[in-house]
Structures are given as C-alpha cells and as structure tokens.
Amino acid sequence: MTFSISARCARTGLFGITVSSSSPCVAARCAHARSGVGAVATQNITDPTLGPRGLDLMASGLSAAEALVELKTGAQHIEYRQLTLVDRQGRTASFSGAKTLGTYRTVEAENVVAAGNLLAHRDVPVRMVEAFQASEGRHLGDRLIGAMRAALEAGGEEGPVNSIGMLLVRDVAWPIADLRVDWHETDPIGELESLWRLWLPQMDDYVTRALNPTKAPSYGVPGDM
Known about the structure:
four-stranded antiparallel sheet, 10 strands
C-alpha cells in the first residue's frame, strides 16, 4: 500500500524522498533524510526507527549496502520490512522482506532507488526510476514528483492513494522542504504538486532568512517573518 522514490541530485548534492500510500500521514513514518549523509525510506509494515538508524550508519562512513546489512542484522521482524537507502556518493541499496505485502519490487540505479508494495504490477518502480532519469537537469523536487506521476500512470497501487509527502535536505541542518498531504480523497499527488509550486520560489529565501536575516527578502505581508 506504499510506493516511494529516494534520490540524490549529483549536480547539487540534494537528497530527497517522495512517498505515497493509501494510509494517512505516510511521510511521517516512512521518509528520512539527512544533509551530507543520504536518505532512507522504511515502508510496508513500517518500523520508523530504521530510518534514523540507517542514516546514523551511513554517517559513520558505511555505504548504503553496508548500512543495509547492519540494519537487517539488528532489526526485529525484518521479514515485514521494505527498505531503500541512498548514500552520499549516490550508491543505493534495497530490501523487501519475505512478508512484504502483495505485489512488490525495488529497483536501484545510480543516485535513485524506488520501491513499492501492493502494487498494481511489478513495472511500477521501473517506470519511476525511468522517469527520474529522463528528467536529469531539473530540480530534484520536480524529478521526484514526476516519478510519482509516472507511478500512477503505470498503475500505482492496487487501490487509490490518499496521502503523500516529500522531504528534501541540502547543506543546512534542517529540511528545506517537508511537504505533506496527509489525507486527500481523490488526488494527493496533485495537491502535493500544487504545494510544491507554491513553496519552490520561496524555499531558498527561507534558508537565507535563517542564516543571515539582513539579506533576507520580505514578501510584504502583515506580520511577515
């Protein structure tokens, strides 16, 4: 009941994850990324602790594949989990336990890994990775949303999706985008895309505001902070 894409932008160093599900508030549980370290998606019968643990392992110097080995060794009920990792060098790793739900698959390439369970068919993650690769040169957020659109066009899940989130990190200590549509009856991906279009022109300005308020632009609204 979940499909996701985790990626690194080789041009900018950004890391990002977009994840969608029939369940509410999916990104609160499944999406994890850290500046200069990488990204981890943990899904299926989700254990949210695996995201920070995977990031800690990669921060210690392990590759995505090495961190995955450690996660699998130390995790309880790993047969229920589906995991993807991408590290600071764009190396990827993935895992689907034997009790992953329904039709499932992970697909890895340099700088990108996609995964899904309860899929309409096994080609969905393939189409996500292909869409991501075909959009090289665009902003990472655009590429991730495009991959989610490609997933829907390829059939998506067995049922409708109702929530989605996108997490982006760069060379600051906080996410520069943490956008969520925690429940939508008809088109959460479309709602996220609209939110992204609103946020993108202002995103870097809010980083400037945090780092150096004297150079921060104002948007001229009452109480503007």
